[in-house]
Design the sequence.
């Protein structure tokens, strides 16, 4: 009987094809990775990649008058077609401020608090921007959740006290995965992180590259301010420089603690001078692997583009 039914089904299917009748195709659905209960899974629209970036000249002055036709975008070696482009000067900000409270920074701690407080008061715009504050020594601690209340944010910084080891990578991982990644859709916000530290991690469960990968998945640009004032680059300084360069940010090395305010002001200025572009990757990939990106200004070798260096494709 089963054999007979199979022959009947095959005959009907053959007849349908012969008559030119085909089943109606299902409408295409955007392929997405769903954000399930697993906190490590990232929601990503694979049909587009959004990039925020800055352009500056050799004197480190922002260049803000460029158009979409002035840029080439490559994913790997394949040039991409820009679908949308805008000069972003007013994009709402989602900012994480990570402050090292370990014993190694005790001598400079008070001035760091003052500089960070001034930065919060000057940068955060009520009802538009939100910031959080995370301290880290032997353990990391969320001392102020995402909010636009500058008084509460500043108070959380002033109430910090130094002591213990350094868990920098855990703080980066947590702030990206559990906080900055949560506001959706991603392209509606500028996600950034400011780290004030000597970069010497000795307590984290996560590695440097695991922390960096989470920042890249959350589209977070990292700015780092070294509190090493010896004028000799340390291993910790190299870590800070690596985190910044890989995400499209900058590292600042104040020669004295009084220069910290200028470093914060430079970060504030950069966050307000952004370009944004969007493209649909060709070819589309869903292998979960790292896809390198490069943005160039056409025929302008004198200009520097600072952007994240790629993204992780979703795994479907």
Sequence:
């Amino acid at each position: 009987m089963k054999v007979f039914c199979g022959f009947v089904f095959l005959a009907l299917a053959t007849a349908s094809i012969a008559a030119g009748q085909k089943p109606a195709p299902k409408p295409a659905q955007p392929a997405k990775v769903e954000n399930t209960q697993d906190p490590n899974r990232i929601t990503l629209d694979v049909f587009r990649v959004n990039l925020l970036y800055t352009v500056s000249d050799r004197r480190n002055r922002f260049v803000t008058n460029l158009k979409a036709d002035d840029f080439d975008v490559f994913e790997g070696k394949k040039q991409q077609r820009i679908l949308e482009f805008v000069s972003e000067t007013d994009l709402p900000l989602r900012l994480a401020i990570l402050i090292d409270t370990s014993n190694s920074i005790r001598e400079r701690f008070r001035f760091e608090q003052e500089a960070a407080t001034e930065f919060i008061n000057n940068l955060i715009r009520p009802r538009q921007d939100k910031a959080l504050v995370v301290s880290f020594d032997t353990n990391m601690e969320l001392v102020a959740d995402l909010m636009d209340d500058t008084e509460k944010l500043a108070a959380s910084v002033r109430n910090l006290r130094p002591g213990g080891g350094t868990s920098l990578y855990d703080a980066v991982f947590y702030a990206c995965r559990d906080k900055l990644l949560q506001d959706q859709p991603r392209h509606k916000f500028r996600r950034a992180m400011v780290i004030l530290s000597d970069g010497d991690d000795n307590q984290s469960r996560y590695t440097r590259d695991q922390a960096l990968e989470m920042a890249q998945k959350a589209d977070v640009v990292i700015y780092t301010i070294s509190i090493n004032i010896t004028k000799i680059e340390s291993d910790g300084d190299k870590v800070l420089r690596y985190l910044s360069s890989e995400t499209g940010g900058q590292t600042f090395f104040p020669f004295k603690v009084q220069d910290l305010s200028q470093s914060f002001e430079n970060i504030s200025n950069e966050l307000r001078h952004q370009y944004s572009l969007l493209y649909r990757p060709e070819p589309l990939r869903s292998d979960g692997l790292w896809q390198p990106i490069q943005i160039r200004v056409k025929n302008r070798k004198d200009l520097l583009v600072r952007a994240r260096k790629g993204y992780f494709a979703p795994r479907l």
Notes: The chain has seven helices and 14 strands. The longest strand covers residues 49-56.
